Amino acid sequence: MSMFEKIFGDFSEKKAWREMEKRAKALPEDYYNAYKAMQKYLWNTGGVMDWQETKFVFNHIIDLLEEVAANGKQVKEITGNDVSAFCDDLVIDAKSWVDKQRQKLNDSIK
């Protein structure tokens, strides 16, 4: 890894993030707002940690919202009334920040 990459990060990941956010912004306003709310929830709860998992989950949410919008349905018709539970189910197998901290603690003690 070059010094440039250490300072600024991997540009391919940043490009992928920008493309994903561009797709989300193309959603109708209500669906975009739902995406941002789910995204905020996942960030705040530590639901996703790894970039690959993050990219997978957020792209999956965008895919679902694009489909729901195309079919003229409301967001809760796909998520159910408990949107937080829907989001939790999306990341149930993903390594979270808490998982990382648990592993770090376990590894630190001999």
Question: Could you explain how this protein is built, in words?
Answer:
- With about 110 residues, the protein is mostly helical.
- It is about 75% helix and about 0% strand.
- It has seven helices and no strands.
- The chain has helices at about 5-10, 10-25, 30-45, 50-70, 75-80, 85-90, 95-110.
- Helix 2 (about 10-25) runs parallel beside helix 4.
- The radius of gyration is 16 Å and the shape is flat.
- It starts with a helix and ends with a helix.
- The model has no long low-confidence stretch (mean pLDDT about 85).
- It comes from Metabacillus halosaccharovorans.
- InterPro entries: UCP029876.
- This is DUF1048 domain-containing protein.
Summarize the structure.
The protein is an all-alpha fold and 110 residues long.
Question: Which descriptors apply to this entry?
Answer:
single chain, 110 residues, mainly alpha, 75% helix, 0% strand, flat
Write the SSE topology.
Blueprint: H1 3-8, H2 11-25, H3 29-45, H4 51-70, H5 76-79, H6 83-90, H7 97-108
Helix pairs in contact: 2-4, 3-4
